[in-house]
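Much of the work behind modern protein science is quiet bookkeeping, done one molecule at a time. The protein below has been through that process, and both of its lines are reproduced in full.


***
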Amino acid sequence: MHVATFLDHRRYVETPSGRIAYVEMGEGPVVLFVHGVFLNGLLWRPVMERLAGEYRCIALDILCHGATETSADQDVSFAANARMLEEFCAALGIGSCHLVANDSGGGIAQIFAANHPERIDSLVLTNCDVHDMWPPEPIKPMKQMIAQQGFAPVAGELGKDPATAREAFAVGFEDPGILGEEELAAYLGPLSASPERAELMTRFFASMNPADTMSVESRLRQLRAPTLIVWGTADVFFGIECARWLEDTIPGARPVVQVPGAKLFFPRERPDELVPLLHRHWKDAGTRPSAASA
């Protein structure tokens, strides 16, 4: 599926947190995908395409990102995004799901899963924010610059210059050359499409606070949902110690699966390695819930 076709399939649902954009494909047990900062649901396109024959795959755009509409006074923290996930599931009539997340989406997913274990048939966490080990050191200078200057002056031009955008994304991709101009524009363009959108991103960075993930530690220690942790070993943001913390903390966690040489956004680059792990995880978990209907 081409980028434009994927984006043309976007739907919207009203929630107390805003009008949430999402793409859905396939039928079967629900798999809910959550992306991280600077991206949107498009990240999961290759994985969804490989799973849609057996699963109802849903990738949403978190607050401040993609085509999701967020009000100017909306809380956009990780905790607020986790509340949005609960509202999103309620709005679509999703009783429970397989939850799959990456980067900031992984931190959001941990909060959601800890607060709503009844919604979680299984959990999959790839390289992501964990407990008190974020924001990661490489992102702190950008976070400080955005706090001082605002998002637009720091990152707002990336969506207009593919070469510069690919250079910036090289820190999270093994081969940023796989990102065509259309995909780069789909990720970065909406973030500063207007002064209001850029201000939302300024607030998103300002709201980054590990207290949100630390606050659910005790509930994570009670989460028995089957949990798969898949970690790229070349990620400069979230080292293997983050994966080990999750493995040691979540009772339902399997041993960490390492992906040698993979960087932060490997679900986009290495779907053929991730998808078999997902299939095996869900088969081993024995969780095949009835498909929820919208």
